[in-house]
Design a protein that fits this description.
The chain has helices at residues 10-14, 49-60, 145-154, 161-169, 190-197, 222-229, and strands at 27-35, 38-44, 69-73, 77-80, 102-103, 117-120, 130-131, 135-138, 182-188, 214-221. It is an alpha+beta fold. The longest helix is centred in the first third of the chain and has 12 residues, at 49-60.
Length: 235
């Protein structure tokens, strides 16, 4: 997950307080990502408040509209959010664009790289601070006991037995746990991730055909989100 490492601007994030208070409220944000190949819907985790606030802010500003999923790898992930991808020439190298700040890592052991997880891209900075705009969504694969053990040997954090079961039955990318901040989850449209990840790509893993996104957020009653998409919020 490569993106540029800029200056952390905490003031910018703290200036967006409206989503921090959602945990105890009856409403939360529903994220909709629309592409030419379909639509997926996500929730953002309260346990990662700075990432949540930043993503909502950018989405409300229309920052992501017209950007590309510029890096795709089958059975691994799809990545987007590079501002340089807007109207980028065919074949141009992408992945280095930023918004001039990073976000401190918000690692939470209960948030892991299961299929459909939304996580922040970053460069190799030692603090593991996240890109202020680039993100990826886990495609992943299911793992046998033996292969999962190898993946766990590469991970910065070991999954719980319950999480290991998810990796074996639902899938994900376990070796990324503890290295990148997971801050959301796809709750509708999981098959679209497979569709996007399976598209033809070049040697840099950029899709041969542009895959443009539009991202919107809507504040809805949690009960309505649960009824529509079957997602259960923590009490």
């Amino acid at each position: 997950m490569k993106s540029i490492f800029g200056v952390v601007l905490l003031g910018l994030l703290l200036a967006v307080p409206d989503c921090f208070a959602q945990k105890k409220k009856k409403k939360d944000y529903l994220v909709t990502i629309t592409t030419d190949l379909g639509t997926m819907r996500l929730i953002l985790h309260d346990q990662t408040p700075q990432h949540k606030a930043n993503f909502i802010k950018l989405a409300k500003e229309g920052f992501y509209d017209g950007l590309l999923f510029h890096r795709i790898i089958e059975d691994f992930m799809i990545q987007g959010g590079d501002p340089n991808s807007r109207k980028a020439e065919a074949g141009a190298a992408l992945g280095s664009g930023d918004v001039g700040y990073t976000i401190p890592a918000e690692f939470r052991p209960e948030l892991f790289h299961r299929k459909g997880a939304l996580a922040a891209a970053r460069d190799n900075n030692p603090q593991k601070a996240s890109s202020g705009c680039q993100f990826y969504i886990v495609d992943g694969r299911t793992w046998s006991e033996t292969d999962l053990a190898r993946q766990m040997g590469r991970a910065a954090r070991q999954p719980t037995p319950e999480q290991q079961q998810v990796y074996k039955t639902v899938g994900g990318t376990p070796h990324l746990d503890g290295a990148y901040t997971v801050f959301g989850q796809v709750i509708d449209g999981l098959p679209l991730i497979d569709t996007l990840a399976d598209q033809p790509r070049d040697a840099r893993d950029r899709p041969e055909a542009n895959m443009t996104m539009k991202v919107s957020v809507e504040l809805l009653r949690k009960k309505k989100i649960t009824k529509r998409y079957g997602y259960s919020f923590e009490s």
